[in-house]
Design brief:
About 50% of the residues lie in helices and about 15% in strands. The protein is α+β, with helices and mostly antiparallel strands. It folds into three domains: about 60 residues; about 80 residues, Phosphorylase Kinase, domain 1, CATH 3.30.200; about 200 residues, Transferase(Phosphotransferase) domain 1 (Transferase(Phosphotransferase), domain 1). Helix 14 packs antiparallel against helix 15. The longest helix has 25 residues.
């Protein structure tokens, strides 16, 4: 344990190899004198690491020991941890390849609801086979721990770049979002809704390939039992969640993913999330009620077409969003090629026709009723007709005058 602790401190750049070697030598000397001290405590005593760092390293070592219990795999490193699981880099011994393993903590492994959700994620991912989706490999249980083995992606998340302050160019952002839209189309055509599209769940490889990850909230659109159980609950991430998810509606469909992808695109090209607030509840309230500031109003270098696409993707009324993920892909491909997005014009046209079909409301807001009317401008055809009548009248009068004379 102490040997591994020293190695991990070096890997995490908490201590230099020389500092670790010096502490090990000091630990051996004290042990020979009959006053042994753990290596970690000695490193804290000498001011090389803090007590908090020591606790974090020991916790990581314990998690790695847990991972070592998974047969057929050798844990190599801890990649990260979230609220629900810890992810390790590992070696699949049978095929001699690097994989990622997500392990459910012991405290969640004893909760049937968390275990069921964990296996649902694995099964959902297993239904998909697409170059822009992180591939599922295996799920199982060992030593009381539940695990999910998946493709290892060498790279970083979009969140990492955004957190570093990067604002993406239109071309780069559209290229990434187009890849994820294709991944979502693949999922949607198989009846699967992701429900948590966001920068943290989009990996970028060293070759620039975007991959959609984390199917933890995914479910089949046709799963009425799950929909009924989740009714009234907001599942998703506040900065990117669709209004219908906030309301906890039962019939969540592909349009919720389109909204979240639009919010992600918005963040990439503006450097800020669509709606901000002091609390998650405040942010979600704005998704429901506050008008969206178009991204091209924040970043003037963006094309009007991109602004239109984002606005339709993030329409609060899902009936005004894209009619299919494939339509969205056509528009993203058009923008990438420097052409205007034609599918979005259809959606905008439908929205305008819908507005025209609304009945005149006597209870309209006062400020709306008092808007000045636009000045009337006659059409060219009407002008020509009036001139023709005047000319004919003038000619008839001239003829009568000549006859009198």
């Amino acid at each position: 344990m102490e040997t591994e602790l020293g190695r991990l401190c070096e890997e995490r750049h908490l201590a230099t190899p020389e500092e670790v070697a010096e502490c090990r030598q000091e630990a051996r000397r004290r042990a020979a004198e009959g006053r042994p001290v753990p290596l970690g405590e000695l490193m804290v005593e000498k001011g090389i690491i803090t007590q908090r760092q020591l606790a974090r390293v020991r916790r990581e070592l314990e998690e790695m020991r847990t991972g070592q219990q998974i047969p057929g795999y050798r844990i190599e490193a801890r990649l990260g941890a979230g609220a629900m699981a810890t992810v390790f880099k590992a070696r699949q011994l049978s095929l001699d390849r690097t994989v990622a393993i997500k392990v459910l903590p012991k405290r969640f492994s004893e909760n049937p609801e968390y275990v069921e959700r964990f296996y649902k994620e694995g099964k959902a991912a297993a239904k998909l086979n697409h170059p822009n989706i992180v591939q599922a490999i295996d799920v199982g249980e060992a030593g009381g721990y539940h695990y999910f083995v998946m493709e290892y992606v060498e790279g970083h998340t979009l969140h990492d770049e955004l957190a570093a302050g990067k604002i993406f160019s239109e071309q780069e952002a559209v290229g990434i979002i187009l890849q994820i839209a294709r991944a979502l189309a693949h999922a949607h055509e198989r009846g699967l809704i992701h429900r948590d599209v966001k920068p943290k769940n989009i990996m970028i490889t060293a070759d620039g390939v975007a991959k959609l990850a984390d199917m933890g909230l995914a479910r089949m659109a046709s799963d009425t039992q799950a929909a009924a159980a989740e009714a009234g609950k907001a599942y998703g991430t506040p900065y990117y969640i669709a209004p219908e998810q906030i309301r906890g509606e039962r019939d969540i469909d592909f349009r919720a993913d389109i909204y979240s992808l639009g919010a992600t695109l918005y963040h990439l090209v503006t450097g800020r999330v669509p709606f901000e607030g002091d609390t998650p509840a405040a942010v979600m309230h704005k998704h429901l009620q506050e008008p969206l500031v178009p991204p091209d109003h924040i970043n003037p270098s963006l094309s009007v077409g991109l602004g239109e696409v984002v606005e339709v993707m993030m329409a609060k009324d899902r009936n005004l969003r894209y009619a299919s993920t494939r339509d969205l892909i056509l528009d993203l491909e058009a923008i990438a090629a420097g052409r205007p997005p034609m599918q979005v014009r259809k959606a905008l046209g439908a929205a305008e026709l819908s507005a025209l079909a609304e009945p005149d409301r006597g209870d309209a807001p006062e400020e709306t009723q008092q808007l000045p009317a636009e000045p009337w401008t006659p059409s060219p055809k009407l002008l020509y007709a009036v001139l023709a009548v005047l000319a004919a009248s003038l000619l008839a009068n001239l003829v009568l005058l000549l006859m009198v004379l």
